[in-house]
């Protein structure tokens, strides 16, 4: 089963069975969240001879952990959103996952369309070889949305601003709901392109994120990544809390 099959099935199952309108009170101008994650991405390397025949293949588990915080503020009448993140990523391997990350983004959130531009600095946490080889700073962050924030909509993120970048990876695309100021359950399901391995490649996996209200102003955050990989699976999970306040 492909990664996008896993993500699509999980999104459909939750959408049909979950009580999406858990809390329908207005609010949510400001959000502060803290989350952590742990897991592993496969770093797959394969070699070929001059005739194109495979001569060897290796699979290394790049175990990574992230701990960080994120703050969101809907400005003015709520049509614009400012997001900042910061934290630390560590790893058991030498070539990826060691560094402080931080970033900021300003997004315009229209009724049915949204777009945002910002910057994410990851040190060597996700793209070490670009820093080591002088390939330029890969810090541009991009966000695009189609559909209403509080309803089912599509999202594309390049270098997502997440408290747990080891799960959010370098890019992700999928379906989300409940991302506006209305108090309700939220979710994001799709496909994620993971951090760069020592071979220069990127793993691809399905991911899911849930935000479940525990009360008028607190949400619990649950996250997971899974992909079959080549010889070893991509597998990671995370959790956190989010404080929601302001009108």
**What order do the helices and strands follow?**
HEEEEEHEEHEEEEE
Catalogue the unreliable spans.
Answer: 3-25
Which structural class do you get from the secondary structure elements?
Answer: mainly beta
- Major sheet size, sense and barrel closure: 12 strands, antiparallel, barrel
Question: What is the C-level CATH assignment?
Answer: Mainly Beta
Strand order of the largest sheet: 1-2-3-4-5-6-7-8-9-10-11-12
Per CATH, the architecture is Beta Barrel
Question: What is the gyration radius calculated from CA atoms?
Answer: 18 Å
The CATH topology annotation reads as: Lipocalin
Ordered list of secondary-structure elements with their pairings:
Layout lengths: L2 H15 L12 E19 L5 E22 L4 E12 L7 E11 L3 E9 L6 H5 L7 E7 L6 E6 L6 H4 L2 E7 L8 E11 L5 E12 L4 E10 L6 E12 L2
Antiparallel strand pairs: 1-2, 1-12, 2-3, 3-4, 4-5, 5-6, 6-7, 7-8, 8-9, 9-10, 10-11, 11-12
Q: Can you characterise this structure?
A:
- The chain has a 12-stranded antiparallel barrel.
- 10% of the residues lie in helices and 56% in strands.
- It is mainly beta.
- The protein starts with a helix and ends with a strand.
- It has 3 helices and 12 strands; from the N terminus they run H-E-E-E-E-E-H-E-E-H-E-E-E-E-E.
- The chain has one domain (3-245): Lipocalin (Beta Barrel).
Concise structural overview:
The chain contains 3 helices and 12 strands, in the order H-E-E-E-E-E-H-E-E-H-E-E-E-E-E.
């Amino acid at each position: 089963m492909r990664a996008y099959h896993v993500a699509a099935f999980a999104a459909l199952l939750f959408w049909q069975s979950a009580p999406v309108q858990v809390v329908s009170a207005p609010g949510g101008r400001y959000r502060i969240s803290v989350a952590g994650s742990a897991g592993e991405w496969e770093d797959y390397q394969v070699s070929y001879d001059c005739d194109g025949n495979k001569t060897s293949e290796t699979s290394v588990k790049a175990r990574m952990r992230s701990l960080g915080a994120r703050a969101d503020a809907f400005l003015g009448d709520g049509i614009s959103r400012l997001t900042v993140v910061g934290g630390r990523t560590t790893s058991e391997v030498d070539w990826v996952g060691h560094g402080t990350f931080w970033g900021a983004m300003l997004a315009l959130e229209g009724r049915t369309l949204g777009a945002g531009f910002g910057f994410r600095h990851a040190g060597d946490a996700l793209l070490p070889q670009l820093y080591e080889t002088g390939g330029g700073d890969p810090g541009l962050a991009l966000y695009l949305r189609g559909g209403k924030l509080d309803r089912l909509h599509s999202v594309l993120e390049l270098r997502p601003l997440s408290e747990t970048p080891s799960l959010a990876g370098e890019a992700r695309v999928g379906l989300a709901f409940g991302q506006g100021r209305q108090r309700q359950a939220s979710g994001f399901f799709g496909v994620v392109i993971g951090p760069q391995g020592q071979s220069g490649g990127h793993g691809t996996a399905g991911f899911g994120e849930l935000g479940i209200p525990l009360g008028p102003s607190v949400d619990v955050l649950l996250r997971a990544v899974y992909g079959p990989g080549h010889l070893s699976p991509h597998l990671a999970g995370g959790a956190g809390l989010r404080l929601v306040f302001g009108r």
